Amino acid sequence: MPDDKLERYKKKRDFEGTPEPAGEVTETAAHRFVVQKHAARRLHYDLRLEMEGVLRSWAIPRGPSLDPEEKRLAVNTEDHPLEYLEFEGVIPEGHYGAGNMIVWDRGTYECRGAETDPVKAWHKGTIDLRLHGEKLKGYWLLVKLKGKDEADNWLFFKKPDQYADSGRDITEELPESVLSGLDVSELVEGEQVRWASRVERLLEELQIEPSPIEETVAPMLATLVTRVPSGSGWLFELKYDGIRALAEKKTAISGSTPAISSL
Mean per-residue pLDDT for 86-97? Predict the structure, then answer.
């Protein structure tokens, strides 16, 4: 497939000086999305929807709102490569879009309503979305404004559903990256962004060091058998897939032996 969808993106960037990915058009069957928080000349949020092998992009100056009455301007910008789904870092001064950028939210989306094909919906100017993100969930609309001076201007807003909340500012409440846990002001140029799980970030915030468990202790494992035991002394339940873990609990009495349990 020709790479013309990324031509505008590549012409604006010098990849020897910016950490942004050059990327190529890559056809996939997935419908992923990402919202980047971008502290460029002005702080804004970039919504990107995967379609036609690229990320179709909209710059939202005021960010998303959970209030269905708040219709936010969304400017349709150049397509971005799929590698942007996980891009966060510092774009150096002198380069297009200079400033710090984090992955504020990400997930998958569905197209709903009269047009369920995202490419056709984009061409028609109405994209009825259901977002499955870590922060943005439920039903949203992207609607293109009409008129000769409104070529790239759309509106992005929440539809009334269980996730709508007029009294909640989600950008203020949840300012950090879903990848690194950092806010845009915490990124440092030239440093590798470290991925951390939510549990790791919580432990760091509480200044709690993970406690090592005795290496000689192993979790109880299930045993595969051809038939279940019989008799009135047995009780059965369905086993669901999961992660087997060890937890260590230390009593408050000084010098006592820790109790170690298998979960």
Answer: 91
State how far the Cα of 263 lies from the Cα of 260, in Å rounded to an integer. Answer: 10
**Could you please report the per-residue DSSP string of 28-93?**
-S--EEEEEEEESSSEEEEEEEEETTEEEEEEETT---S-TT--EEEEE---B-GGGGG--EEEPT
Rg of the chain, C-alpha, whole Å: 24
**Cβ atoms 184, 100 nearer than 8 A:** yes
Active-site pick, 11, 148, 239, 249: 239
Residue 147 pLDDT greater than 80, yes or no: no
Q: 37 catalytic, yes or no?
A: no
Q: pTM here?
A: 0.72
What is the structure's pLDDT at 230? 79
The strand pairing partners of 144, in sequence order, are 154
Residues 179 and 106: their CA atoms lie apart, in Å, by 9
